[in-house]
Amino acid sequence: MSQDWNTRTKLVHEGTRRSQYGEMAEAMFLTQGFVYPSAEAAEARFDALGEDEFIYARYGNPTTRMFEDRMASIEGTEDAFACASGMAAINGALCALVKAGDHVVAARQMFGSCLKVLEFLQGFGVEVTLVDGVDLAQWQAAMRPNTKVCFFESVSNPGLEVIDIAGVAKIAHAGGAMVLVDNAFASPIFSRAAELGADIIVYSSTKHIDGGGRVLGGVVCASRDFIRGPLETYVKHTGGAMSPFHAWVMLSGLQTLDLRVRAQASNAAGVASAIAGHDNLVRTIYPGLVTHPQHALAIEQMGAGGTMVALEFRGGKEAAFRFLNALKIILISNNLGDARSIATHPATTTHSSMSAEKRAEVGVTDGLVRISMGIEDGADLVADIRQALDAA
Question: How far is CA 339 from each of CA 60, 88, 160, 195, 206, rounded to the nearest angstrom?
Fold first, then answer.
């Protein structure tokens, strides 16, 4: 890796593997298998895989490896492994870390599917304790001798609580546990997770990294021992590897990631400032606002407020729906991190499988709307949201 390069240069060039043709763009090796010159060569490759050798796309592929190398470089970890989706990455990382009888401490403020994976683990004999992620005293109190992992989203989905990575890491490491951070909302551009003590950083590369709403993907960034040891063993045998085509799309997305994410964050900050205090809102939630409970931590940890804004409406679901239906530029969908701005009503979509009581525990009210800011003109987005707020 070229550690002396800055992020934007790495996003364009790091990890490139060119064939004998000297192609400019990254080559897409859309193949599931590889040919060996002899039976002896096949035996040797299966016995000890070389740095630039491959045997099956579920185990690795040149295009996928380019994406992994580039992600590890910008995240500041030794290695990375690309998965079929963000949830495949979360599931793979957790299952590679724990077994029956082990204990996981996790923040309760998380995406519904992350909580569901923890439920599955409990069914296999793993103990799970959920805590208020912003309260370090609760992390400390939950630790046990058999705690193996502390797991949380650095910025929670959808309530935008900011978790103290360094604070949790200090507690976890003192107890012999590893720190697993879902960093999707922060994005790799605003990530300091490895520097702050996270052992394993996971992204849904569907968000921000692709940036065009085209394909699914996920990636786990960590030490080489973990990536090429328990994680690779688990993922390659359970089938959660990334498609080479999807890796090729992600490589294209990485080239403009820094430009897009910074534009999105600028739009988010502008919108949040413009609408804070609107009569139809209980609150405007954005880590970049000084009114956010973890504002100082967000700026220290990420250097920016991020690309996401959440609004809580006084009129509950009815007001939220009126707002959503009045939007003209911002689209109603359940993804995030795209170049297009997207609005979501979590209680009826991404968190609808949770009971009302569980949603209340994680702050998902009927009046909550999550907005992922895109790269459209900032003034147009402010105008669109203002007119929709008036309609609400």
Answer: 29, 24, 20, 28, 12
Q: Are 295 and 287 in contact (CB under 8 A)?
A: yes
Residue-range domain boundaries for the chain: 7-255, 258-391
Q: Which residues touch 249 (CB under 8 Å, ≥6 apart)?
A: 210, 212, 214, 215, 217
Rounded to the nearest 10°, the torsion over CA 24, 15, 50, 201 is -150
> Cβ contacts of residue 219 below 8 Å, gap of 6+?
67, 68, 71, 80, 81, 82, 83, 89, 202, 203, 205, 209, 242
**Terminal C-alpha separation, the chain:** 51
**Structure tokens belonging to residue 149:** 């992992």
Architecture (CATH level 2) of domain 258-391: Alpha-Beta Complex (3.90)
8 Å CB contact between 131 and 144: no
Distance CA 374, CA 389 (A): 19
pTM value is 0.95
Side-chain-side CA neighbours of residue 182 (13 Å): 30
- Per-residue pLDDT 10s for the chain (392 aa) are 566 899 999 999 999 999 999 999 999 999 999 999 999 999 999 998 888 899 999 999 999 999 999 999 999 999 999 999 999 999 999 999 999 999 999 999 999 899 999 999 999 999 999 999 999 999 999 999 999 999 999 999 999 999 999 999 999 999 999 999 999 999 999 999 999 999 999 999 999 999 999 999 999 999 999 999 999 999 999 999 999 999 999 999 999 999 999 999 999 999 999 999 999 999 999 999 999 999 999 999 999 999 999 999 999 999 999 999 999 999 999 999 999 999 999 999 989 988 898 898 888 999 999 999 999 999 999 999 999 999 98
3-state secondary structure of 306: coil
- Dihedral of alpha carbons 73, 78, 82, 83, sign: negative
Dihedral sign of CA atoms 78, 210, 193, 237 in order: negative
Alpha carbon distance 281, 315 (integer Å): 8
Hey, how many other C-beta atoms are within 10 angstroms of the C-beta on 178? 20
The highest-level CATH class for domain 7-255 is alpha beta
The sign one gets for the Cα dihedral 376, 381, 383, 384 is positive
Which residue is associated with the tokens 């960093």? 183
CA angle 206, 211, 214 (to 5 degrees): 60
